[in-house]
Design a protein that fits this description.
71 residues; alpha+beta; 5-stranded mixed sheet; 5 strands; globular
Length: 71
Amino acid sequence: VGVTAAENLIVIRCHPGTASAVAFALDDVELDYVVGTVAGDDTVLIIVDKTEHAADVVRIITQLGNVDSVL
């Protein structure tokens, strides 16, 4: 499990079969700067409004869950 940011996109790697639940939880908490999420089987793509905000969102995600971040 890990989080990586690239420009205004954030990728969360999850355990197989859990990405939809992770994306739903992120959508449910309505994080600032997050425009939307897309989930696959083990990956969530988060679209952030501006590149400058991606690091803030990654910090929040790493604080909420047990994940490693790579900025």
